Amino acid sequence: MVRTAISRSIVGRLLILASAILVGLLPSTTAHADPTLPEVEKQLDEAWEKLEPVIEQYNNLHSQLAANQKKAAALNAAVTPLQLQVDAAMRQVGGIAAQQYKFGRPSTLNVLLSPGSSQDLAERLVVLNSIAKANAAEITQVASLRDQYAADLQKVGDLVKQQQAQEAELAAKKKQIQAEVDRLEALRNRLGATSVPTSSLYIGACPAVYIGGAAGIAVKTACAQIGKPYVWGATGPGSFDCSGLTQYAWKAAGVSLTHYTGDQWKEGAPVSKADLRPGDLVFFYSDVHHVGMYVGNGLIVHASRAGVPVRMARMEYMPYAGARRPG
User: Candidates 3.40.1000, 1.10.287, 3.40.50, 3.30.70; correct CATH number of 37-190?
Assistant: First the structure.
């Protein structure tokens, strides 16, 4: 009986141990549980902090590329008439004078073989030298300008090729991060998240403080875009990213801004936080990769991230970096 009881005790303990081992080997259901909606929103914000600087770098390269393509076209247009001018100058010199410019003084024999008296010959030689010198100077000047334009055009062409390669590299990087954002958005939707109600996009009057002039036009334009979707690289009128929105708003007021936060930071006059007024551009994060428009009473309008329409926000809850006043 004692031996049987001991055997039963050992078997019981082994069963408990086996159960514990089996439980340990089974996957934990809590470890793989979907995160809550607030957790997903936090992950989305963190992912977007990595993505938005890449988008703004892309905007920067895209703006530079467009500017250089425009410059290349202008230089190319300038080179063409200069080439025609060189050709016309060469024709004006005439056959013998052109040979003199290209290959040196023509032989006396060729001149002597031309019909005419000795007096005619002397006169022809004087005229020939005069024409050759005048046209040679003109040709040299025009050719020099043409070569300078061609050299500039070559530099711009090389830069455009370099930036196209950089743009492709940034697009690939953006694609990788976007895949993660899309995954989180899909999870957000699976958890039953709904679209943001239009009413929640307003947290006060927009603009909160009236201001006239160009700034007033820019502010009203920015406020009118509330509710429109965020799309990276977009400059309106149907969708925007952050620097695209501020560029669009100030363009309505007649002020040109580059579609890149880094340039917009340089294009306006610095203004202190205490002196902010509606229309000022407010920048966020240490690398100033996000921008919005101040509308008064500590409120801004901005295009924050994918999945969130253009909306108002309280500046006090954002990582403020500084402000600039366009115009």
Answer: 1.10.287
